[in-house]
Design goal:
Blueprint lengths: L8 E3 L5 E2 L1 H10 L6 H10 L1 E2 L9 E5 L6 H14 L5 E6 L2 H16 L2 H4 L2 E5 L6 E4 L4 E6 L12 E5 L6 H7 L10 E6 L8 H16 L6 E5 L22 H7 L9 H10 L2 H7 L19 H5 L9 E10 L5 E10 L2 E11 L4 H12 L3 E3 L10 H5 L9 E2 L3 H16 L3 E2 L4 H8 L1 E6 L2 E6 L7 H12 L15
Parallel strand pairs: 4-10, 4-11, 5-8, 5-9, 9-10, 12-15, 14-17, 15-16
Antiparallel strand pairs: 1-11, 2-3, 6-7, 7-8, 12-13, 13-14, 18-19
């Protein structure tokens, strides 16, 4: 039984060829026989454009420990030295002992391969100067990262090991060294994020998820991650969206080295020993990634939103309800809007996993409030609910207003203006705040509509609140045509 050889999360720019096979073959000559997943990483990360330059300026590999990422690093560095002609390869790690261990591993590979060993001028063993220098002048250096390490070196390839501990000071020291190199490349390798220290890994991951969400690859990043998406406390028993952390399937999904250097039996012993959080992070790749303040609250500022919170705010008749759900149908939200003190109150009435609860909840709310209308974007995922909501035989008989594309844009603009003019009030509910923090604009004709910044963001409460507010002034008799997807 083997782990997944292709990562669950992967995005890469288009390439017409790859130098990866050269690296795989060279590693084999040196006695390093790579697993299929390791070979996949090299073929993807070393993809080439038509002019022969790298398709990916940055390559990030996020995989739990002990799976064998070191073999990928060694193969890439061997290629850079003996085939690629890279003048300086800079291998950095958070701790010097990690960098030194990597130096010893690749030194051993080269020494045991006569046709490679004969090209080496010296193996530098001096503390702080560790490296391998060829007769050609090419150099592979091993350093521990710090705010100053790497300054003064012009690296053709930077290998950032232990990238879950990589922040702005280290990047500021290393990245500018590549500015003068015609075709440089950075490789980031590590395991799941550990919170505040994982600044750079968090940025890379957000870029990858944003590319997957948009369906357009990041133009300069190859990102490969082996991880699971664990069940939430509120998941129904038959949830198919998330992973059971206690299952063998979760281990196989997040550990490509199973069957090569890991076994399910060994992992079971780890699970019995580690804490639940530790096991999820270290073995299943469930990371904690810090938010980048520049990536949140992009449309409406947090201070502006929080200032409109009013605990006593409540809607008055007539009210309008709206429903929205995520594209994956993993969560849905019902929101209400109504007048309050000369402005409009918006509120998340319900926000839960799945969709099976919506019809009965809508019936309860309709009978209690008698709203002027219900609003749903008919072309979005919640559009599948409209027929059942309007079906009189099921006892609902609710007329649903469906906004056209231009009305969707108008609804978003009205919501934005109400915040700017301070005529909107809310209860400072977490689902709505989280949605706003993770939302961005997408073009819609000459205007814009809400969009998710990354796939993990659930903006259904924001979309539903926006449509509910719009519903207060909508023509109830007019049925919409072809609204746009959120």
């Amino acid at each position: 039984m083997y782990g997944w050889q292709i990562p669950p999360i992967e995005t890469t720019p288009p390439a017409v060829s790859t130098a990866g096979q050269e690296a795989i073959d060279l590693a084999a000559r040196a006695g390093l026989h790579l697993d299929p997943w390791q070979q996949h990483i090299l073929r993807v990360g070393m993809g080439e454009r038509p002019d022969g330059s790298w398709a990916s300026f940055e390559v990030a590999v996020n995989v739990p420990r002990q799976n064998g990422k070191g073999g990928v690093i060694e193969a890439r560095e061997l290629w850079g030295l003996f085939i690629g002609g890279e003048e300086l390869i800079l291998h950095s790690a958070h701790e010097f002992k990690t960098a030194k261990a990597a130096f010893k591993r690749i030194e051993r590979l080269i020494r045991q391969t006569p046709d490679l060993h004969k090209r080496v001028k010296t193996y530098r063993q001096t503390v702080g100067e560790e490296g391998i220098e060829l007769h050609s002048g090419q150099l592979l250096r091993f350093i521990a990262r710090s705010k100053g390490s790497g300054r003064g070196f012009t690296g053709h390839c930077n290998v950032m090991d232990e990238d879950m501990i990589l922040g702005d000071p280290e990047m500021d020291a290393l990245l500018p060294t590549m500015a003068a190199v015609p075709d440089p490349q950075i490789w980031y390798l590590g395991s799941a994020g550990i919170g505040a220290p994982s600044v750079q890994l968090g940025r890379l991951r957000r870029r990858a998820l944003a590319a997957l969400e948009a369906g357009v690859p990041d133009p300069s990043l190859s990102y490969m991650e082996w991880s699971v998406d664990p069940h939430l406390d509120e998941c129904p028993k038959d949830c198919q969206v998330h992973d059971d952390v206690a299952s063998d399937e979760a281990v196989l999904k997040s550990n490509p080295g199973v069957g090569y250097r890991l076994t399910l039996e060994k992992v079971a012993r780890e699970r019995a020993t580690l804490s639940a959080d530790g096991y999820a992070r270290e073995r299943l790749g469930v990371g904690d990634y810090p938010a980048d303040s520049a990536d949140t609250w992009q449309v409406i500022g947090e201070d502006a939103w929080r200032a409109l919170a009013a605990a006593e705010s409540t809607p008055s008749d007539p009210v309008a309800f709206a429903i929205d759900m995520t594209p994956e149908r993993s969560h849905a939200a019902i929101c209400v809007a109504g007048e309050w003190r000369g402005g409009v109150h918006v509120e998340v009435v319900d926000h839960r996993p799945g969709t099976g609860w919506i019809l009965e909840r809508a019936r309860e709310l309709h009978e209690k409030w008698g709203p002027r209308c219900w609003v749903i974007d008919g072309a979005g995922p919640a559009g599948s609910l409209i027929a059942d909501l309007e079906d009189e035989e099921k006892g609902l008989g609710i007329t649903v207003v469906q906004p056209k594309g231009r009305e969707v844009a108008a609804a978003c603009g009205q919501f934005y203006d109400a915040v700017a003019e301070q005529t909107l009030s809310h209860l400072d509910q977490a689902p709505l705040a989280s949605a706003l923090a993770g939302a961005q604009k997408r073009p819609l004709g000459d205007a814009w509509a809400w969009a998710r910044r990354i796939v993990s963001v659930d903006i259904s409460p924001l979309v539903a609140a926006t449509l509910a507010k719009w519903g207060l002034g909508a023509e109830v008799e007019e049925q919409g045509g072809a609204p746009n997807l959120w």
